[in-house]
Give the backbone structure.
Amino acid sequence: MDSLLSDIRVLDLSRVLAGPWATQLLGDFGADVVKIERPGCGDDTRQWGPPWLGTESAYFLSANRNKRSVTVDLSCGAGQRVIRELAAGADVLVENFRVGTLQRYGLDPDELMERNPRLIVCSISAFGQDSSRADEPGYDAMIQASGGLMSITGSAAAEGGGPQKVGVAIADIMAGMYAANAVLAALYARGQSGRGKRIDVPLYDSQVAWLANQAMNYLVGGEVPARLGTAHPNLVPYQAFATRDGDLMLAVGNDQQFEACMRCLGCEDLARDARFDSNARRVANRDQLVAIIAGRLAQGTTADWLASFAAAGVPAGPVNDIGEVLGNAYASERGFVRHGRNRAGADVPMVANPVDFGATPVAGYRAPPLLGEHTDEVLREWLGYSAQDIDALRLEEAI
């Protein structure tokens, strides 16, 4: 059965995470993703270990399944010629070089699009292609910090907490998600117009865009959001609490759930207390209510409280570590961990794409490629190169 993007060719000139995450999503949906890497060393993240699976870092493996690896030296003329020819037959090109780098290599995206008017070029950078900060570099942690996320992540200042980075490179991941969505929209538009699009996805702008309700809280209320730990700025009770033997997350979203929660805690009268009988009043009297709930929850076990909340329809859950998340019964039921074997014979575990298209599944789970594994194959398939052509490129050290 054909996958959703089985006729789409993606030339992936990106590295590290934001770009590779976008192209991995496209690969999951069936696109033929050709990842261009530097001969001899490849994507920077191939060296970002431990841990390792053979010679491959877990970091690299997390963002590069369902791709083919081709090594090309972009700094030499022969390598640049190969890229121009690959771009001439591609549907999508994704890159995250520093602004101006491709132009210095003779690979100006606008010129590539002139040669191939159907080409969609998606450029991911720290601050956009034409802003006053376009020349500045940017990594995920920098963007989390300067883009406001770290100011609202971590324990409250009154509790002695400082700003915290999210535990995964979420600024990169979200920029990759925006990029993949933009590419899909551009592919749809191309179906109407026959022409490609030039897409600009800045990490910083993406970070600001998904500040979501916190940004709106500031724009509407005028107060700068502060760190609240696990608590919610607009809902109470909505945070983690300690139990007698662990922790749980309580996530009450309306008055009915609050009433049910208070019954579970043996505090039915609090649902009618004028301090707490609406969400707005609960937010205003957050500290008082949280102290009462914390005292009650500390008297029972996590399992007992979760069972009680579940029976009453109160949203609550355990605070699991990653081993528990990937090793529990639900993970097995949903197929969270998939496997593929790479060219070296290693079994590569992969976290599944969560999207279910019903009768049209994701493309599968081909293990991330070894460096340069598909160079000859792609040059033959995409460009019709002969063995002699490929040997000549190797003699020039272009591939």
About this structure: The chain has 17 helices and 13 strands. The chain has a mean pLDDT of 96.
